[in-house]
């Protein structure tokens, strides 16, 4: 840390236009001071009133008490200030920036700036004019702008200038310049290498993991609980830039090194944090979102075995969720089920998984002889065949099994050992309502799937899957029965989806064929499941969980975009895949595949798999 | 130079020498109208290193693929230790014939150790259930597999790089790793498809030693190679494949002395009354291409 400040100050002072000048021509030491001052002023401004009326949601009219979007700006300002102070080498703050502070300052300042300006513009637009801003709003706008300008003037290693060929056409020259500008901007935000961590006692490391998980839970809970659209947009801006800042500072690397070291503690901690979620909510509405996210995430994790580990592109995966849900619904004692059976939940869940597995084998046996694109197309077809079959098995166009498009409705609530999932319960002073009950049950299923994923992935069979994905011919020549191993992956994935489906049937009261399409506006469906896996990171456990949470939350919270919702969503996906093809939480293997030129960590630790 | 002769003399071999390990009879492979391999017979005995040479496109790799179940030969049969080899490549490996590839086909994004562990697949049994339940048997088997894999890595000298990704290894080490991966399946016969392609002389020399060491483990070796010096140093017997047909088979001296072999590689100048210049050309080429014969005569 200290070295960086030294190098940045001395040469840059002598030669401000030198090879490592900042993006903006302010002398770096002034820039650094500006960033720090701007950060502090931002913090102060959030304690002022930004507008005069509580018509703008969140009530930003109080002095001394930040509300709504102000809290987010406050977080951005805090991050900027902390990183900036750390860049001065202040003792006690250096641990914040193991990979260098400058890029982190830039991103943190951008977080505060974007959120503050978004708020200010939203206030002006909504209330009709800048006159609605109180002085606090002006202060915030100016302070964040100053912080960003200061941060952008911080020096960085500029890439060598790349002269263009004078014979190029002007269009080629333009493209060349644009490309060079791109690399310069990329360099401006590049992080240094994370310095190795100081040796900490194990309890301290575990405490850090717990703190990180608690932070994760807080952020997630806040995101789910955002009550109005502006706050959610602000939340996305702040967390996006804030997370990037933490990553550039090297904090993410640090924490992931620790979680890789204490995997069981992390898993237990994450499980406890997730289980704590319904207790933090007073309103069952958010537990509803939580349980749908969990169903989606669990199925995505099951798909990750098929796609991420074995490399089989399955576009009809949601059919297995449907098989599980229909099976559980038919034996639930629902009046519209053709069978008058009411099995206990454990039997229904096992039956759902088993039937889904049988379907997995039946569909897999003929299709898994195909490779690549052909497999994708055939699974897509089988997924639709399932839906159409269920639609037609209504007694008029086919046998009366599934009740056609009406589906199987009035599925009774679960009752396990006298615990009625439909009722509110009070546990230790917390009220746990219907959806929270199902949330906790679903969490257990998720845990089962996580354990299955981890154990199967790290075994003889898991290595065989990866080998098949890497090079099928070589894998066969090494004695792996490719078809059998792929069929196991397919059937296992199907069984896990069926297990999740057996809970889903009870959560949604009704199962209809429309829930299990290839593409649909509401997740889970095959397209969204695959997107969650790819977006989150193929072959990892946390990737699909994070991907599913984002893919569920973002469309649900961006309802106000109306018809443009899917457009914005698609655009975001395209951009993400362009700039981070390995997903949000990349498997180390994948990261290497996509960024061959990057300084590859030659040693792959267990944590990466 | 001395080592090769001594190892040849002292070849112990686990099996009684002379026992036929691989017996290919009348192997023919047609792709539509094209006959890539025509009626080739080849035997490999235990404790033996057999070479397969021939100009580009002679059908060497096709023949290899017929042996390893990648192709099903149109005619003929391949027996391994008396049993006809099955027609799927994973079953061939399970039966005891392992191979490497002409273009390295490692699992690039797996670690060195994982690559070798994949090679252990046929010799281990743990299925999905034992992986999920993680009983004591599973842990024991995993540990045993890892120990065996580490032995093999020690053997080829890559033990220190066990956690490196295979893609990050230098070329020569990738070749070695591919051999270790094949050895992990505990084969009785190892097929090497151009193991020294792209190697420098030192690496070629090291590969030679490695192949001798593998032979000394009691594993018969069949090797395709273009490097004549390498093949004539290494092999007890050499078969020459030209345009899908076996031209000559015999020890190094026989093959090198055979005019038809030289003709296959360099064209056929002597068919119609070779002129003085052409004879000189052939002799020069012989001297240049094969420095090995002198060793043979020395002995």
UniProtKB/TrEMBL annotation, chain A:
CDD domains: TM_PBP1_LivM_like (cd06581). It is found in: Cell membrane. It comes from the Bacteria. The keyword Transcription does not apply. Keywords: Cell membrane, Membrane, Transmembrane, Transmembrane helix. InterPro entries: ABC_transp_permease, LivM-like. Residues 1-10 have a biased composition (Polar residues). Residues 1-20 are annotated as: Disordered. The chain crosses the membrane at residues 33-53, 65-86, 107-125, 137-156, 203-225, 231-252, 264-280, 286-308, 315-333, 345-365, 372-390, 435-453, 487-507, 527-554, 561-579. It is a multi-pass membrane protein. Pfam families: BPD_transp_2 (PF02653). Coiled coil: none annotated. This is Branched-chain amino acid ABC transporter permease.
UniProtKB/TrEMBL annotation, chain B:
This is ABC transporter ATP-binding protein. SUPFAM superfamilies: P-loop containing nucleoside triphosphate hydrolases. Residues 275-299 are annotated as: Disordered. PROSITE patterns: ABC_TRANSPORTER_2. It comes from Streptomyces tauricus. It comes from the Bacteria. The lineage of its organism: Bacteria, Bacillati, Actinomycetota, Actinomycetes, Kitasatosporales. Residues 22-268 form the ABC transporter domain. CDD domains: ABC_Mj1267_LivG_branched (cd03219). GO terms for molecular function: ATP binding. InterPro entries: AAA+_ATPase, ABC_AA/LPS_Transport, ABC_transporter-like_ATP-bd, P-loop_NTPase. Keywords: ATP-binding, Nucleotide-binding, Transport.
